[in-house]
Amino acid sequence: MEIHKPAHVVLLSSPGLGHLIPFIELGNRFALHHNLKVTVIAVTSETSAAETQLIKSATKPNLINIIQLPSQDISHLIKPDAAVVTRLCVMMREAKPAIRTSLSNMTPQPSVFIVDIFGTESLPIAKDFNLLNYVFVASHAWFLSLVIYTPVLDKQIEGQYVEQQEELKIPGCRSVRPEEVVDPMLDRNDMQYEEYLGVGNGIPKSDGVLINTWEELQHSDLQALRDEDLLGGILNKIPVYGIGPIARQPVSETSQETELVLQWLDKQPSESVIYVSFGSGGTMSFEQMTELAWALELSEQRFIWVVRAPTEVAADAAFLSTGFTSNSDDNNEVVANYLPEGFLSRTHNVGILVLEWAPQEAILRHPSIGGFLSHCGWNSTIESLTNGVPMIAWPLYAEQRMNATLLAEEMGVAVRPKVLPLKKVVDREEIASMVREIMVVDQNAKGNPIRERVKEIKNSAEKALLEGGSSRVAMSEVLLTAKDHCRACKRKNRR
Ligand code: UDP
């Protein structure tokens, strides 16, 4: 019996597949588990065909409605080389009139509005419509702590964060090393730092925060966010809910390319293949790509590698523009141009390359996968943890350096290069040795400790989502609050 039932939930996601995917999955969860009407307002970037394609496939099961708002031309508002966070915040700001129009045209009138961290400037619009409003953090609790605490650090610390001698202390949470700060903190003079401070100041203005984590995974960080003597005071004591893991679910229709990858995986031994991918936007230099290719060969492990053309510009070069391309023979020839000579023929029995975009969720779920060399985007991380797959943590951008620390040092489910890949090329011997560390099970030892640990986390994730589990209970609390809010609004309207 569904008793906690607000009428209609609206979610607002910012551009980028790493944002849109968890919002669609959260929407699906509201619709499937709680039988609610759900609308996702998706602000999308003009250049990303992938976003449009994802929206098309996400509406097929007819669980949720999606309103796609193509982004406005913002070229007159930003410099041509503006960083990702600046672009995101400006796109979301410019979308505000269209968001207002969308909300006012909805039937039935929504009662809950959930925005992502780049959408907090739309919270006042929701207040005009009397909606209960939440922020959904599609990342983890330690990251949220840093975001909301940065306005305090901004007053305390002089000079660049990356040049500090001491770690950045956050009350009740693990300190952040200067070299692992999030991208917008790398340069305080860049416009994106100002925008990021705005994000930190915007989140506490909501009625509550939902985070893609769960109690058992990050209990002490969640408690710090609730404790008014620690970070709860900064958050204005609004409720903080761990509702994760929100992970990508299998799609009903699969493409021919997906079938080919899965058929290849079917022929490989259990947990014998390492999956190599850098998310929706990760790119690397030609030199680094060469070392990675040699390392995969040297490691003598089976692999699936999602390859993108190398670039010397920012590591998040493709974040707002990823497009799906097909794996035709022509494309294979193009790829061959930037891989070591003979790589394709030498490895064709042990590995496959997928161009640009792979069916990651289906790959990680496959029993033949035994490891994931990942850029540590939070969605990829969640997908790896929930499938019990250990990782090589290879952070590239955004909050991924923090994620890598969390995975390697706190959870013990990943190994990582000795130096941050951003600073220096990681050489083939080091990469090959990391690959062997997570893939090879020593017959004399009692299994592989990283593999054991990640399986424990997988189990705890499953428990959190069961009836009575921490995330299930948190979700019910959100809906109960929403129901009370609806009732109160109705009473007010009757008066
Ligand atoms: N993804 C995918 N195929 C790819 C690359 C990425 O399906 O080839 C999906 C992946 O499963 C995840 C999302 O895109 O759900 C990437 O989000 P993440 O937070 O890991 O990284 P971001 O792209 O935001 O840096």
Automatic annotation (TrEMBL):
Q: Which UniProt keywords apply?
A: Glycosyltransferase, Transferase
InterPro entries in alphabetical order: UDP_glucos_trans, UDP_glycos_trans_CS
For the protein in the UniProt heading, the enzyme class is transferase
Establish whether keyword Ion transport is in the entry: no
Under Gene3D superfamilies, the record lists: Glycogen Phosphorylase B
Database matches in PANTHER family: GLYCOSYLTRANSFERASE-RELATED, UDP-GLYCOSYLTRANSFERASE 72E1
Name of the protein in question:
Glycosyltransferase
Q: Which organism is it from?
A: Crotalaria pallida (Smooth rattlebox)
